[in-house]
């Protein structure tokens, strides 16, 4: 069965020849300037480059945005940014790709690993530049959402969002794919619903796309224009770059990935803010690399108050690379890539082993996208759960507590694009009236903002006592993806949800 993603076998031949050139670029000791070999040696022992390759298993490149202003441009909206890169094999390590301060949004390394695609918001332009900083050019108008190569042939495409909406998060009514080689016209792949910028990622065969349609309705779309399946609420979604159809949604506390295997009922959670150097604080910009076991993120976010630590940025924010366990149940190893006086945002990781997966993928032997089980709506049944109704009565606890520490109530601006939020205060347990709880302290999350307004009873003061009905926070599927502010110093204390104030 031939792939439906190519209409002309000439393009397939051209793409295949391009791949041969690209792979030889990485597997030989050639260079661009005859003085600095591209891949002339393995990384030095005990170097950052070696630590990265020990984690990824192969030659690795990374790109990201560095804030050379006040370190608060977490969402890459300004022009005090520069484009950065890292190569584990060329001897240069971390370096500046484009020094000129400008807007560089969501940089992505092309599938062959030799170029970077990014968006310049100030020009509404998709740009492409060599990893060595040469041959910078405008590719198209709009915003770059994804880069992808057809398996086997290796022909590269950029997925571009246009017709921007007025949603709370940057979203687009239309997505086209544009060939990097310029040998064919752009092709529309989606206009059935708005698509939010972060993230829109494709399966290896290009038939599925994980995204938000729009924020915060997360799910998987069938391309081109084949409808989509809602899987829940969340942000910074990502789809594994293979044929496992693993999809994650970032939770509202910005600490965990809620992973779903599309087409099945498998769901589980993976913590990512326990990486060395994060110390339990929030993390951001989670993204799968081009290899399914490698992901990246930024953190820790320690600056700012209330619900605004992400917007606060800070010079401690660094790029981290993680490796999933073989069963994808946890992150088994981490490397902190950056750590200097600058804040680093929007990382993307490329590995040679990821490129090899693309080249070796046999679309005809794999399950067709049409044969993937489609669940009409695989999201939990949350709409019928009242916020003051216990989901698990057997696990609910009636309790008398005294407030020890209160998290600041966030402003509406701080939680944008969310329009509702919870905070988790720290309480001392005075008396357990019913149910079972044997610890001296408890974190209890409760609603402070709903429907874009701070609630009248949102503010609480240390020393006050409260008679509450609570249940474990993780038992509440309706809270999946909701914005939650909590103090990192209390992460080891069990987290509960306030069902009712009695």
Characterise this structure.
- The chain is mainly β.
- It folds into 2 domains: 9-371, Neuraminidase, CATH 2.120.10.30; 393-501.
- Helices cover 9% and strands 42% of the residues.
- The protein is built from 5 helices and 32 strands.
- The chain has helices spanning 9-27, 48-56, 309-312, 352-360, 412-415; strands at residues 60-67, 81-87, 93-102, 105-109, 115-120, 125-130, 137-141, 143-149, 156-164, 171-179, 187-190, 195-196, 201-202, 208-212, 217-222, 228-233, 235-239, 246-250, 256-261, 267-271, 282-288, 294-301, 318-324, 331-336, 343-351, 397-405, 421-434, 441-450, 453-454, 465-472, 483-486, 495-501.
- The strands form 7 sheets. Strands 8, 9, 10, 11 and 12 form a 5-stranded antiparallel β-sheet that branches.
- A hairpin with a 7-residue loop joins β10 and β11.
- The longest helix has 19 residues, at 9-27.
- The model is unreliable at 1-38 and 368-376 (pLDDT under 50).
């Amino acid at each position: 069965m031939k792939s439906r993603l190519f209409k002309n076998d000439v393009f397939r031949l051209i793409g295949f020849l391009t791949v041969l050139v690209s792979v030889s670029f990485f597997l030989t000791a050639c260079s661009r300037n005859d003085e600095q070999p591209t891949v002339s040696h393995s990384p030095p022992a005990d170097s950052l480059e070696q630590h990265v390759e020990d984690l990824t298993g192969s030659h690795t490149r990374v790109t990201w945005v560095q804030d050379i202003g006040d370190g608060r441009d977490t969402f890459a909206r300004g022009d005090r940014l520069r484009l950065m890169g890292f190569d584990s094999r060329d001897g240069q390590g971390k370096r500046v790709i484009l020094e000129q301060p400008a807007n560089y949004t969501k940089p992505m390394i092309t599938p062959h690993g030799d170029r970077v695609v990014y968006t310049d918001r100030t020009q509404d332009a998709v740009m492409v530049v060599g990893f060595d900083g040469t041959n910078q050019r405008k590719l198209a108008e709009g915003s770059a959402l994804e880069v992808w190569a057809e398996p086997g042939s290796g022909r590269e495409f950029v997925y571009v969002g246009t017709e921007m909406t007025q949603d709370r998060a940057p979203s687009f009514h239309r997505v086209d794919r544009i060939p990097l080689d310029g040998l064919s016209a752009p092709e529309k792949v989606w206009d059935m619903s708005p698509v939010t910028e972060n993230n829109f990622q494709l399966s290896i065969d290009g038939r599925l796309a994980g995204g938000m349609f729009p924020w915060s309705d997360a799910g998987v779309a069938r391309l081109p224009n084949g409808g989509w399946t809602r899987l829940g609420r969340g942000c910074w979604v990502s789809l594994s770059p293979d044929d496992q159809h693993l999809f994650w949604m970032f939770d509202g506390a910005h600490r965990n990935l809620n992973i779903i295997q599309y087409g099945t009922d498998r769901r589980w959670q993976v913590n990512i803010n326990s990486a060395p150097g994060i110390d339990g604080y929030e993390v951001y910009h989670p993204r799968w690399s081009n290899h399914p076991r490698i992901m990246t993120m930024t953190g820790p976010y320690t600056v700012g108050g209330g619900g605004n630590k992400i917007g606060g940025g800070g010079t401690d924010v660094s790029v981290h690379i993680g490796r999933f366990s073989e069963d994808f149940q946890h992150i088994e190893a981490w490397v902190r890539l950056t750590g200097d006086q600058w804040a680093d945002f929007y990382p993307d990781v490329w590995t040679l082993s990821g490129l090899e997966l693309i080249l070796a993928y046999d679309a005809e032997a794999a399950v067709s996208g049409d044969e993937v089980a489609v669940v009409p709506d695989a999201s939990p049944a949350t709409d019928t759960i009242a916020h003051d109704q216990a989901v698990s009565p057997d696990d609910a606890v009636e309790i008398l507590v005294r407030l020890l520490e209160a998290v600041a109530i966030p402003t509406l601006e701080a939680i944008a694009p969310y329009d509702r939020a919870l905070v988790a205060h720290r309480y001392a347990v005075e008396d357990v009236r019913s149910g079972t709880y044997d610890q001296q302290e408890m974190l209890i999350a409760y609603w402070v903002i709903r429907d874009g307004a701070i609630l009248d009873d949102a503010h609480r003061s240390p020393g006050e006592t409260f008679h509450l009905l609570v249940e474990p926070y993780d038992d509440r599927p309706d809270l999946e993806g909701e914005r939650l502010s909590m103090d990192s110093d209390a992460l080891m204390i069990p987290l509960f949800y306030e069902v009712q104030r009695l």
